[in-house]
Amino acid sequence: MKKIRVLVADDHPAFRDGLCRFLEEENDIEVVGRPADGVEAVMLVKELHPDVAIIDVVMPELGGIEAAREIKATCPTTAILMLSAYDYGSYLLASLQAGVAGYVSKSTPVSELVSSIRLVHAGRAVFDLRGVKKVISYVSGNSKPGKNTSRLRQRELDVLELAAKGMTNKAIAGELNISQRTVQTHLFNIFRKLEVKSRTEAVFRALREGWLVPDDLS
Questions:
Q1: Positive or negative CA dihedral for 109, 117, 212, 97?
Q2: CA distances to 26, 176, 216 from 62, in Å
Q3: Cβ distance 86 to 40 under 8 Å?
Q4: Cβ–Cβ < 8 Å for 202, 188
Q5: Selecting from 1.10.10.10, 3.40.50.300, 3.40.50.150, 2.60.40.10, what CATH number does the domain 145-217 have?
Q6: How many CB atoms lie within 10 A of CB 46?
Q7: Which of 57, 110, 165, 218 has the fewest CB atoms nearer than 10 Å to its CB?
Q8: Is this prediction's pTM over 0.85?
């Protein structure tokens, strides 16, 4: 069985090493890097190309969000799981815009964190619903109307709702009885209309506009 290659970036040695020890006990996970700051994290991801990079949102030299942005620009296949002691809507929103696949709390039980690693590696998004509500509140109170506020067509909403549940393009295609290429076309149109770059950003935009409700993510 091919193991999930994971990099853990955190500037607190005790937390970082403790988490790595737990992860290395899993049969399907291999820890390949343990950077202590954002600069080292970016460098090691470029060198090692891990499947998943766990990044602390606040780190010296280069912050986690900036590091995530650089990683996605150079290593787009590496899924990023942001790990944080903070659940501020602004941090979560900035992480989404940087292209992360998930945002979980440092207080999350290790068993749930392990599950999150497997989920983001499989192409699914992982966000606590409490964080979802915070970012919706933050965006609603701080954003200005975008240049393109066109509503999505019903089929696009159908695709987005299934994407919000973490379904892959193949699963969405099967559920809606359409081809995977058609799913990709719908997602492209959704991103263009909503002026976003990822599924997760699109989901949060739809939540903010009221096109979806948090229960759709369950």
A1: positive
A2: 30, 43, 35
A3: no
A4: no
A5: 1.10.10.10
A6: 13
A7: 218
A8: no
